[in-house]
Design goal:
The complex is a heterodimer of chains A (384) and B (227). Chain A has 384 residues and is an alpha+beta fold. Chain A has 15 helices and 10 strands. Chain A folds into 2 domains: 189 residues, no CATH class; 180 residues, no CATH class. Chain A is 58% helix and 18% strand. In chain A, strands 2-3-8-5-7-6 form a 6-stranded mixed β-barrel, surrounded by 4 helices. In chain A, helix 2 packs across helix 12, helix 2 runs antiparallel to helix 13 and helix 12 runs antiparallel to helix 13. By secondary structure, chain B is of the alpha/beta class. Classes of the chains: A alpha+beta (384), B alpha/beta (227).
C-alpha cells in the first residue's frame, strides 16, 4: 500500500505533467472510442438498411418451378432448432396484371400477413388504404400503382401463365423503399395464391430472419443439415451480398488498425513520461531504498503510476468519446430529425477498450519500473 | 556486546579505473557506544560508513551486524535488515518533499508494515515533542528551516528503534548553534535508546562529543582513541 501512496503523491507533486499526460491519454482513447463506435454503427446501419427489411435466410425448392410440400413440418423443425427470429411461409408466382390497354408482369406474393409483416414491415409501409382483409383483396406497390393509375377500391385483374384469371379489389398501397419490389409485388393472402395457381397446400418459399445477421450463413448450414431434405435448398443474404461484406470487412480491419495504433501511442506516451519520472524521482527512490524499501515495492510505484494514469485517462477518454459520437450523430442528422447513421453503443466494445487501455498503461509502467530496479541508494547519496 | 564488526574489509571501485579506497579495515563497535570517524576528504570515512550501513558492499572482508554476516545476504534481506536495525542521518536531510514531516517520520515504519499502530503514532508524537518540532508535524517537508529538517530526519531515523544510528556529516549544513543542539540530541539518543552511534565528520568539535575517535587516512585507520 505504501507503493500506491507514494505513486499517488508522485503524480500529485508533478501536477502539470500528470494533467498533460492524462489529457493526452484521454484524447487518444476518445478517438479510439469514437472511431470504434462510429465504424460499428456505420456497419450496422448499412447492414440494417440493406437487409433489415428482408429475409436473411430463405428455404426454396431445390429445382426452379417446383414447390415445397409438407412445409408445416419444415417450419416446426426450424422452430424447434431455435436460432431464428421470424419464420414466414410464402407462396409466390409470376403473373400479369391487365388494366385497360396496359399489361404488366408482376409477382403475386401470397403471405401470412402477421409473420411477413415482421420481416418486411408491410403495415407501416402502407401509405394509403389498409392491409388486405379478405382473400379477394390485394396490396399494390407505389410504382405499380403509378403505372396502372389506380386507387383504393379499384379492381385488379390477374392472369396466371396458364390463363386462369382472378379479379381482386385493391385494399391499399405500400412503399417498401425498393422500387423493384414496389413495381412487381402484389401482396395478398397465401390461400389466394395457392388457389388460383393450383399449388394446393404447397408453397414456394419459407423466409426467416435471425437475431445475429452475421451468423446467417452458419445458421443456414445448420438448418440445412438438420432438415436433410434433398427437395429444398437454403439461401442466405451473405451469399448474395459478397461485395457489401468485403467492404464491411475492410472497414472493420481499418478500424482495428487505427485502434491498435492509438493504444500503441498511449503506451509509448505513458512509458516515456514514467521513464522521465524515474530520473526525476531517482533521489526519492534512492532515499526509500536507503530506508529499506525492497526493489519490488519500489518498482511497484511506477506500475501503480502507469495504472492510475491509464485509469483516469481512459475513463475521461471514454466519456469524451461518447460525447463526440453523440455530438457527431446530432450534427449529421437530417432536417426531418432522422440521423445519417443509427447510433449503436456497444458496451462490450467500450468495456474492452477500457480494459485494454488499463492493461496497456499498467504494462507501460513496467519499463520505468525495471529501470528503477537498477537505482542504487548509494549513488544518490554520493552524488547529491 | 558488539553490534557492528568489520573483518579485513577492502573496498575497490572499478569505475572508471580501479581505485582502492579501503585497505584491510578491522573494527568493532560496542552496543550503546558513541563513536566518531574523522579524516580529511577522500580518506575513505564515508565509504566506511556506507559499508557499515549496508548501503555499499565490501569488495573483500566481512561485515557483521548483530552477529549476522551481511555481505553475503541477498538484496531483499539486506533491505529488511537496514529497515529494522539501522537508522541514517545524512548531511542533507533527504526528506521526501511530497510528504509531510509526520509522513516522512513514519516512512521507515510503513516500509515494513501496512498501517501505523497507535503505539507507533504515539512514538512519533513523542519524538516530535522531544526534538522540539511538534508544531511542524503536518508541514510539508519543504516548508521548514535546515535545522528543523535535520530534526525531522533524526526522528525518522529513530522511529523503528534502530540498534545502530549512522550519521554522515549531520551538521555539515548547519550553523554552530544548531550543531551544538544536534550533538546534544545524539548524546541523549544513546542514553535513551541504548543505540550504537557512529558519526562521520571532519568537524573535530563534534568528534569531541564522542567517546571514541577513529581517524582515517588514505583508506586506513590512522588512530583509534578513546576520548
Amino acid at each position: 500500500m505504501l507503493s500506491f501512496r507514494v505513486a499517488v503523491r508522485f503524480l500529485k507533486s508533478g501536477r502539470a505533467q500528470t494533467i498533460l499526460i492524462i489529457a493526452g491519454i484521454a484524447i487518444a482513447i476518445s478517438v479510439q472510442v469514437f472511431v470504434g463506435l462510429l465504424i460499428d454503427s456505420l456497419q450496422k446501419t448499412l447492414v440494417d438498411r440493406t437487409i433489415g427489411n428482408s429475409p436473411q435466410i430463405t428455404i426454396l425448392p431445390s429445382s426452379d418451378n417446383s414447390t415445397i410440400r409438407s412445409w408445416e413440418d419444415i417450419i416446426a423443425e426450424v422452430e424447434e432448432f431455435g436460432s431464428t427470429k421470424v419464420i414466414s411461409a410464402s407462396a409466390s408466382a409470376n403473373a400479369f396484371v391487365e388494366m385497360e390497354d396496359i399489361n404488366l408482369p408482376v409477382l403475386v406474393r401470397g403471405v401470412d400477413f402477421n409473420t411477413a409483416d415482421k420481416i418486411y414491415d408491410i403495415e407501416d409501409s402502407i401509405y394509403e388504404g389498409r392491409p388486405y382483409q379478405s382473400k379477394r383483396e390485394v396490396l399494390v406497390g407505389k410504382e405499380l400503382r403509378e403505372e396502372l393509375e389506380v386507387d383504393v377500391g379499384d379492381k385488379l385483374v390477374v392472369t396466371t401463365p396458364t390463363g386462369t384469371r382472378g379479379t381482386f379489389t385493391i385494399s391499399g398501397f405500400y412503399d417498401l423503399g425498393v422500387s423493384s419490389i414496389n413495381k412487381t409485388w402484389v401482396i395478398t393472402h397465401i390461400d389466394t395464391v395457392q388457389k388460383i395457381f393450383g399449388f394446393h397446400n404447397r408453397i414456394t418459399s419459407i423466409e426467416m430472419t435471425v437475431d445475429d445477421v452475421f451468423a446467417a450463413d452458419r445458421i443456414a448450414d445448420e438448418i440445412e443439415q438438420r432438415l436433410d431434405n434433398s427437395n429444398i435448398k437454403l439461401e442466405n443474404w451473405k451469399g448474395s451480398n459478397e461485395q457489401l461484406l468485403s467492404g464491411l470487412e475492410g472497414q472493420r480491419i481499418s478500424s482495428v488498425i487505427i485502434q491498435a495504433v492509438i493504444i500503441l501511442s498511449v503506451v509509448i506516451a505513458i512509458a516515456s513520461v514514467l521513464a522521465i519520472s524515474v530520473l526525476q524521482k531517482s533521489r526519492e527512490i534512492g532515499i526509500l531504498k536507503a530506508m529499506g524499501i525492497k526493489d519490488r515495492a519500489a518498482s511497484l510505484i511506477f506500475i501503480y503510476q502507469g495504472f492510475l494514469l491509464g485509469l483516469l485517462g481512459s475513463v475521461l477518454g471514454i466519456m469524451l468519446g461518447l460525447g463526440l459520437i453523440y455530438a457527431f450523430t446530432g450534427f449529421t442528422s437530417e432536417p426531418g430529425g432522422s440521423s445519417l447513421i443509427d447510433l449503436y453503443i456497444e458496451y462490450d466494445f467500450i468495456l474492452r477498450a477500457w480494459l485494454i487501455a488499463l492493461i496497456a498503461s499498467t504494462l507501460a509502467g513496467v519499463i520505468p519500473a525495471r529501470r528503477s530496479l537498477k537505482l542504487n541508494p548509494i549513488d544518490v547519496i554520493r552524488t547529491v | 556486546m558488539d553490534t557492528v564488526e568489520l573483518i579485513n574489509v577492502d573496498k575497490i571501485y572499478t569505475d572508471p579505473v580501479d581505485t582502492q579506497v579501503l585497505f584491510d579495515i578491522g573494527l568493532k563497535f560496542q552496543e550503546a557506544s558513541c563513536n566518531s570517524i574523522v579524516g580529511v576528504s577522500g580518506s575513505g570515512k564515508s565509504t566506511l560508513l556506507h559499508i557499515i550501513g549496508t548501503l555499499d558492499r565490501p569488495t573483500k572482508g566481512q561485515v557483521i551486524i548483530n552477529g549476522k554476516r551481511t555481505d553475503t545476504l541477498d538484496k531483499n534481506s539486506v533491505a529488511e535488515l537496514r529497515n529494522e536495525t539501522i537508522g541514517f542521518v545524512f548531511q542533507f536531510h533527504y526528506l521526501l518533499t511530497e510528504f509531510t514531516a509526520m509522513e516522512n517520520v513514519l516512512m521507515p515504519y510503513l516500509i515494513g508494515n501496512r498501517k501505523p499502530t497507535k503505539e507507533i503514532l504515539k512514538k512519533a508524537d513523542e519524538l516530535f515533542e522531544w526534538l522540539g518540532i511538534a508544531k511542524l508535524k503536518n508541514n510539508p517537508a519543504t516548508k521548514m528551516s535546515g535545522g528543523q529538517q535535520q530534526r525531522v530526519a533524526i526522528a525518522r531515523a529513530l522511529i523503528n528503534n534502530p540498534r545502530i544510528l549512522l550519521a554522515d556529516e549531520p551538521t555539515g549544513n548547519l550553523d554552530s548553534a544548531t550543531t551544538d543542539q544536534i550533538c546534544k540530541i545524539f548524546r541523549e539518543i544513546i542514553d535513551r535508546y541504548r543505540t550504537t552511534f557512529i558519526v562521520v565528520t571532519h568537524d573535530h568539535r563534534i568528534a569531541e562529543h564522542t567517546d571514541r575517535i577513529i581517524e582515517m587516512k588514505d583508506g586506513r585507520i590512522d588512530s583509534d582513541t578513546q576520548n
